[in-house]
Specification:
Blueprint: E1 5-6, H1 7-20, H2 26-37, E2 53-54, H3 56-70, H4 75-79, E3 81-84, E4 87-90, H5 100-112, E5 118-122, H6 128-136, E6 141-146, H7 149-161, E7 168-172, E8 183-188, H8 221-233, E9 234-243, H9 249-258, E10 262-268, E11 274-280
Parallel strand pairs: 5-6, 5-8, 6-7, 8-9
Antiparallel strand pairs: 1-2, 3-4, 9-11, 10-11
Length: 282
C-alpha cells in the first residue's frame, strides 16, 4: 500500500524529481501534472487540498507522467491540452505546440484590424489562431489552411470544441493554393527556423512535427513564397501579419517592400524581440 502521503508531500516529491532531471519550471510542471491526475480544471485548486491523502491510485499515474516529462515529453502533450488566449485547446504531436508569443500575434491582428469580414490562417496547425480570431470576430468568415492532414484533423477538433464549424472552413492545401479571396486579413505562423538550427533546439521542441519547424536554409522559404500569393488574395488595404524568427525582421520587411506592400512595420514581443511583421496591400 505504501506510506500515506498528503497531496503537498506528493507535489514536493514530484517537484524534486523533475528538478533533478533538468526540467525547467519544475514546480509549475509538477502542479499541472498532479492537477491533471486529480481531475482538477485548474492547478490552483490543488492549494485547497494540500492535506488530502493520496494513495497509489493517484501516485502511480503521477509517477508515470513525471517520468515521461523528465524524458522531454512536453507538458502540453501529457495534459492533452494547452491554454491559448485564455481558452483551452486540444494539443498533441499532430501539430506545433502553440507558444505564448503567438498569443501576441493574435492581439496584434485584433489591434490592427478591430473588425474583419474574412480571414485566412495559413499553416493553421492546431487551429488556435483561426479559432481565437473567429471568436473575436463573430461576423467574419474564416479559412484555416495546412498542408498536413494530421494538423487539420487536430484543428477540426479544436474548431468543433469551440462551436466554430459554421464560421471556419478547413482547407488542405499548400499556402493559399486552394483559395481565391479576396480576404481582409491573412495571418501566418509558418516554419521559420533555419534547417541547420533544428538539431540544436530544446528536446521538447523535437516532439513538434519537423514540417512545422523547418523553414529551409535561411528559415524564410515558405514566408517568401507566401508574400506574392497573399498579395493576390488580399482586399485593398487588407492586412498580412506574420510571426518570424528573432533575427529575420529586416529581411522580411525588405521582402515585403519588394512586393510593393505598404505600411510595413516590425513589432516586438514582450521580451523585446522583433517577432512580428505586418503590412497592407494596395
Amino acid at each position: 500500500m505504501g506510506i500515506p502521503m498528503t497531496a503537498l508531500e506528493v507535489l514536493k516529491a514530484a517537484t524534486g524529481y523533475l528538478a533533478q532531471h533538468g526540467v525547467e519550471n519544475h514546480r509549475l510542471n509538477a502542479e499541472h501534472l498532479l492537477a491533471h491526475v486529480l481531475g482538477k480544471e485548474k492547478r490552483i485548486d490543488l492549494y485547497l487540498e494540500f492535506d488530502r491523502p493520496l494513495g497509489e491510485k493517484e501516485r502511480t499515474p503521477l509517477r508515470e507522467l513525471a517520468k515521461r516529462r523528465s524524458q522531454g515529453v512536453p507538458l502540453q502533450h501529457l495534459l492533452g491540452t494547452v491554454e491559448f488566449c485564455g481558452r483551452i485547446f486540444r494539443c498533441d504531436s499532430r501539430a506545433l505546440i502553440p507558444r505564448p508569443e503567438t498569443e501576441q500575434l493574435v492581439e496584434l491582428v485584433l489591434k490592427e484590424t478591430p473588425h474583419a469580414r474574412s480571414l485566412v490562417d495559413v499553416g493553421t496547425g492546431s487551429g488556435v489562431i483561426a479559432a481565437s480570431l473567429a471568436l473575436a470576430w463573430p461576423e467574419a468568415i474564416g479559412y484555416a489552411c495546412d498542408i498536413s492532414k494530421d494538423a487539420l484533423a487536430l484543428a477540426s477538433e479544436n474548431i468543433a470544441c469551440h462551436d466554430l464549424e459554421n464560421q471556419i472552413s478547413l482547407i488542405h492545401c499548400n499556402l493559399l493554393e486552394a483559395l481565391t479571396g479576396p480576404f481582409d486579413t491573412i495571418v501566418a505562423n509558418l516554419p521559420y527556423i533555419p534547417t541547420s538550427e533544428i538539431s540544436s533546439l530544446a528536446r521538447e521542441v523535437h516532439y513538434d512535427p519537423l514540417t512545422a519547424l523547418d523553414g529551409g536554409l535561411a528559415g524564410l522559404d515558405l514566408i517568401e513564397c507566401l508574400m506574392p500569393a497573399a498579395k493576390k488574395h488580399l482586399s485593398p488595404g487588407g492586412l498580412i501579419a506574420l510571426e518570424i524568427g528573432h533575427d529575420q525582421s529586416e529581411m522580411v520587411c525588405a521582402m515585403l517592400a519588394e512586393h510593393n506592400y505598404r505600411d510595413i512595420a516590425s513589432h516586438a514581443d514582450y521580451q523585446g524581440i522583433q517577432r512580428f511583421v505586418t503590412a497592407r496591400h494596395g
